[in-house]
């Protein structure tokens, strides 16, 4: 009886998925732990791999720098870990395009305490779209490994930091866009951030 119920439930779930036009996708790693294969560097700031970790570090020009995926992503869930050293001001862009170091798109903030990690900023556009409530800043562990989760579906973006939901935003302009995932290093110098376990699950 239990087996029959399980089979019926599975068939029902599959039929609903197919009816909605969706497909189940497995998460895939977008950083191989060895080199920058699959990524493109923009700017003169430093991006390199050390002991299986992806590192961004301010270079001699102390300008903005980006490391973007070769692939583009529209609806997806991204999970990654980061550890901030020194200043630690960085970010994760989605549905972005780049011309040199001029970026169009939206950034999930990665910053020192009190500077709205997990919030959404639109570069060269409207600026801050949403900032987390101040008490949620306690989720950030400066100088330690942090887990970030970013879910982008249509016009809706939700972010989590170490299991705490930071923001939930619906924005029509975001809904009309597609583009690359990109990691940022802020200008000003003195910044170093480590990244690892970058995995994307496409939602189609």
Keywords:
seven-stranded antiparallel beta sheet; 15 strands; about 200 residues; Jelly Rolls; 2 helices; eight-stranded antiparallel beta sheet; mainly beta; disordered N terminus
Sequence-ordered SSE layout with sheet pairings:
Elements: H1 2-19, E1 28-29, E2 39-42, E3 46-50, E4 53-57, E5 65-73, E6 76-86, E7 90-99, E8 102-110, E9 120-123, E10 127-130, E11 145-153, E12 156-161, E13 164-170, H2 172-175, E14 179-185, E15 191-202
Antiparallel strand pairs: 1-15, 2-5, 3-4, 4-15, 5-14, 6-11, 6-15, 7-8, 7-14, 8-9, 9-10, 11-12, 12-13
Q: Tell me the CATH topology.
A: Jelly Rolls
**Strand-and-helix sequence, N→C?**
HEEEEEEEEEEEEEHEE
Helix content: 10-25%
Radius of gyration from CA coordinates: 18 Å
How large is the share of residues in beta strands? Answer: over 45%
User: What characteristic shape results from the CA principal axes?
Assistant: globular
Q: Main β-sheet: number of strands, strand sense, barrel status?
A: 8 strands, antiparallel
If you had to describe this structure to a student in words, what would you say it looks like?
It is built from 2 helices and 15 strands. The chain is mostly beta strands and 204 residues long. It has a single domain, classed as Exo-inulinase, domain 1 (Jelly Rolls). The strands form 2 sheets. Strands 1, 3, 4, 6, 11, 12, 13 and 15 form an 8-stranded antiparallel beta sheet that branches. A 7-stranded antiparallel beta sheet has the order 2-5-14-7-8-9-10, with no helix packed on it. The longest helix is centred in the N-terminal third of the chain and has 18 residues, at 2-19. The protein is globular. The two termini are 34 Å apart. The model is unreliable at 1-22 (pLDDT under 50).
